[in-house]
Design a protein that fits this description.
- The protein is built from seven helices and four strands; from the N terminus they run ααααββββααα.
- It has a four-stranded antiparallel sheet with strand order 1-2-3-4.
- The radius of gyration is 23 Å and the shape is globular.
- The N and C termini lie far apart (74 Å).
Length: 165
């Protein structure tokens, strides 16, 4: 009886653990999912944290953005940070709504004034509201350039451009 040969299968070559880390890093750089919302926010703080602008400038910046786009500025009257959110075009009387950000001195946490949920810092507060609406009319949206950036390097470039996205 003639001996049968084993069929050939196309299996990938085994990867050494040291190579696996490198390959994963390469793939991760191009993957949109590899950069979390929090990381995107942390890398682009100069874009969305605009403490020195006034309400009129915030309106001007947000008027050309889609609903859900936001920025944070400091209120000159209350000296508190304010989350400014772009609403739908048919919103009355303004297309931007402001939400005060309360700072709890004893616990060193932040929350939106009408919310019971608190956060250790501003980027974590914003990242939460990008995936959940809680007291907001809808979840926040990252500016398009930040949301579509495919690498840390792209996000850093956007950050250097500041509010001009």
């Amino acid at each position: 009886m003639a001996q049968q040969e084993e069929p050939l299968y196309d299996f990938p070559e085994p990867i050494q653990p040291s190579q696996r880390k490198f390959l994963g890093h390469q793939r991760g750089q191009g993957s949109l999912r590899s950069i979390s919302v929090l990381d995107r926010l942390l890398l682009t703080v100069p874009v969305w944290l605009q403490l020195s602008i006034n309400p009129a400038t915030a309106l001007h910046i947000l008027q050309r953005e889609p609903p859900g786009t936001f920025l944070v500025r400091k209120s000159r009257t209350s000296q508190r940070n304010v989350l400014c959110v772009r609403l739908a075009d048919d919103s009355v009387p303004s297309f931007v709504q402001q939400f005060g950000i309360a700072e709890e001195q004893s616990s060193k946490t932040l929350s939106l004034e009408s919310s019971a949920i608190s956060f250790p810092d501003l980027p974590r507060l914003i990242s939460f509201y990008c995936v959940s609406r809680d007291v907001l009319p809808f979840p926040l949206e990252l500016p398009e350039a930040i949301a579509k950036a495919a690498s840390h390097k792209e996000l850093e470039s956007i950050s250097h451009m500041g509010i001009g996205w």
